[in-house]
Amino acid sequence: MKDQLRLLRECFRNEIPAIVFQGDDSCTAEVLEAAIEIYRKHGAAKEFLYDLGLLLQDVKAYQKENPHKVTLADLSPVETELVREEMLEKGLLG
Prior knowledge:
Elements: H1 4-13, H2 28-41, H3 46-65, H4 77-89
Helix pairs in contact: 2-3
């Protein structure tokens, strides 16, 4: 499996947009399944698809072993307020 921390640090250092899906996010497995199909459709290497499949298996195992930790991802109260303010500024909330 790719060194996920190294990849995230590289993105941060080079100001490359990145997103993190945690194992305790109830949508992570579904997102990974969709990503695998999208990458397959676009011709990704079998090794890459295999690596993503391993990650998917890890997520499913984690969620099965820790159902009490699995919830729908959300923003923190501070993040929610900052996003709400931005949406108001852009006229996206009434």
